[in-house]
Amino acid sequence: MCQQSIVWSVLIVNPIGEDAGRYYRPGPGRWLGGGTVALGLAGAVHADVLQCLLRGRHPDSGGDLLVHRPSHRRAGWDLVLAAPKSVSLLVAMAPPARAEQLAAAHAAAAADAVEWLQQRACWARRGGVLVGTDGLVAAGFDHRRSASGDPHVHTHVVLVNATRAGDGVWSALDSSSLWVHRGALGAVYHLALRRRLEAVGVTGWRLEPDGSFDLSGVPRRAIDATSRREAEIRAALAREEPTRAARRAARGLTRAAASDSWWPAAAGAGLGPAEAASLGQGRKVSVCTTAPPAVPAAVATWLAARRSTYSVRDLLVGLAATTPGGASPDEAQAWAEAFARRALPAAGGRITTPEAATLDRAVAELVRAAPGGLGLAAAPAIVSSLGRRPELCGVRAAAVERLTRRGEGVVLLDTGEARDGFFAQASVLDAAREAWAATGHSVAVRSTPAAARRWAALAAVTPEMPDRPTSVLIVDRADRLAPAELLAVLRDAGRTPAKVVLLRGGSLPALSRACSEGMETIDAVTLGAPAPPTHSTHPTGPVYPAGPAHPTGPAHPLAASPHGTLPTGAALAALVDEWQVREGRGVLVGLGPAEVAELNRRARAALRSAGVLEGPDVVVAGRSFAVGDRVVPLRREVGRPGAEGRVVAVGDTPARMVVEWGDGRRSVDSWAARRLGHAYALTPAGLRLHGGAALLLGEPEDLGRDASRVVLAVRAGVARPTPEHAEPSLDLIRPELARRPSREPARDAPGLGR
To answer: What is the pTM for the complete model shown?
Structure first.
């Protein structure tokens, strides 16, 4: 998928607070950026001076540096520029003089990259307009070890959120430019590092399976043997989506003790001190000072394998990914700009290449040539499915009919303006899946394993299996498929043939522009904002009453259909109902943010109906809060991760809200209120920070090592078989806390098991 980039080219950018300067005190530091000249800073970095700058104060007078100082401001960012593992091993095992020479090459490459960033992403805002500045205010701290003690040469560039514009006024840095340039900055650093290492005799690079380059003289076995922390993090993330929250939780759980045990592991894998000393020693290298020896065709092929249109920043990443040789930032930038001038123009001021344009045309032609009459469902099945889901009305009910009544070979399901994009798509696909299944169609989803578990929990859609025929194929995250990937998916489906439902977004937020421009030519079924629950008139069917609004689900009895399936809304309602019976003890768990948002909404509506929440609501960032609401901090600046508070007072604005935490009551201003979430439902990553039992929307196995905490699991899907004369039951799973969770439903609970 096009969002995945080569591992080393994506720079790590960590927002930091005002007290972060003390973290870097153990390491030597140096001032970087043109903005330090205006402040009279040079040479070594003193922690107190950096601390003063992060707090927005002048290092000499201690007064406010910024003219406009908001109550809450981002102190700065930590940009982590890390050398390849092979370089880190070489620095760790080489003789001292040689190690210093190699480390100096890394430090110089980091400074080169910061200078490149300063020339292109250092802006301030004046009245919504970007204006030029004197430069960045940054401090570089060079480290040679990871948190586990393994060799890890990297530089923390602490970027202060302050810059001086041409009018002499200091203000905040425009952070949007920083995020836009982060991938290219990583690429520029690695090109500069290779050039700097060439100058000291270290050459020869090999392309690794993950898309990065390592020194060919360093055995791959030695790299794997000394990457303990990375292996632990990957193991912790094996069962869930690698989101920022999940990575943060995984890092917190895998803090290996620092030691030097990597040394014998590296030596046993073929990289001892003697081998490290021989790499590049005494080798005379003539460094080329002209444009890098890149092959434009190789860069074009690399780019086309990821998306259809590009910026100059994308070209820099492609250059670093396909060119073993090094280049200075100026050389790399000049090469990328020359490439862009020769390329084909594309929408939005971007460019494309003949290779990508050919793939896009092939996608569009394949869509037009797709056979009709695929994925048709019987009218009674559609009527039955929609009748059991009165919450589906308006455009969403029309979307179900479009998917099941029109036999299009390829159709695009777009979220449009719907705020709950993934949940809206899941509800529509759940209804369509039931109609398809009742007509005899087999339905499968193509997605990552973690996302496939979310689809199974919400829409009872199973993953695609190579040995199982599929009548309807749902393609998750289709807007993130590169042109070649999308083309391969459509060709595979055409051989069956199978109806293809492409999802814009799906289990990830939708992109504003699909990676494959060919996808933009497909006629889309658009889901708008949720329609009011009154009634819906379908153009090709009868009028279905929606029934009265219900805070926790549809207004019909919770029961499985004759086809043995449970609607999404009923599954959610059953979970929240059981949570209510337990008087809110335990926490609701959804496998993704969309499910968590819906569970929180339903739980809060249930509490409001029960009179637990008092007084009016105040709405902050789309979330409503009232007296009695339980909340959790979404950012460390607001509270300790995993802490739970209770709203005890609410005014007419967020700035008048008071939250009671374990250590006392605190007023919450509008900035902090936007960083509060409801505590009724959490993702698996949040559950690790929260104690108590879990009521899960999914299967217990979805939580991995936390499965033993599940006391109730519900999903939309096949209900437990029952005799013909018995009432159908929900698909409930009630494992015991102290035992391995079972996938079998409770035998003594025909309904909710109360």
So the answer is: 0.81
